[in-house]
Amino acid sequence: MRRFVPTLKAAAVAAVLALAPVAFDQGARAAEGGPESGHDVIKIPNTDFSFDGIFGTFDRASAQRGFQVYKEVCAACHSMRHLSYRHLTGIGLTPAQVQALASQFQVQDGPNDNGEMFERPARPSDHFRRPFANDAAARAANNGALPPDLSVMVKAREGGADYLHALLVGYSDPPEGITIAEGMHYNKYFPGHQIAMAPPLNTDGQVTYVDGTNATVDQMATDIATFLAWAAEPELEQRRAMGVRMIIFLTILAGLAYAVKRKVWSDLH
Description:
By secondary structure, the protein is mainly α. It contains eight helices and six strands; from the N terminus they run H-E-E-H-H-E-E-H-H-H-E-E-H-H. The protein has helices at 5-30, 60-72, 95-102, 135-141, 153-156, 160-169, 217-232, 236-265, and strands spanning 36-37, 40-41, 106-109, 118-121, 185-186, 194-195. The chain has a two-stranded antiparallel ribbon with strand order 1-2. Strand 3 and strand 4 form a beta hairpin.
């Protein structure tokens, strides 16, 4: 039986690694506090996303609506340079829909035979078009602030999708006695509570959803957070499924190993 020990250990490690991000995410969301300013600690509310938990899956309809919010609202400032248009099949778009969508954008290519750069309609294999030519242009258009890339933003912020949802709905007038610097906005969930980004989702119906869903600010925030969670970990469902299968396999294997051990040593009793 000794020859099976390394295999069992490797399988156990693989299962733990497959499910570890779930435990990490839940631990981060359950942790007390969140963004803080001095001694002022505000707990990030739990949005109860469909992809929470070991058996959670992405709501494809919500992710598609979230992409629509990104395209119509967020893409004016924020890039997603790690995603290609072809990846959108992962949220339920057909290859034909992806082809039609990509062709709406112009991307730079070249040089051509004359050594010149040119623009052409995007292909599914192209990365999402960046809103600015470079970081310097992005800063110049945003009063010196550089809008962050959103490709892995859910993984880059403690609280993940819950924090992004809270941030988008957390804008309000500052409490009495709080002075906001010029060009800044009050947000109770942002570290320091002063954020340069104006409220991107500021009114119900700001986006007209293709599927007819009522586009409240909370709904749009939930949908864009779902889309960004998928963008950060498009393989999440497959990894979790693998982890569950490994746990089931190891449980059955442990039972068989115990039965064999009992059988082998039964004559010595």
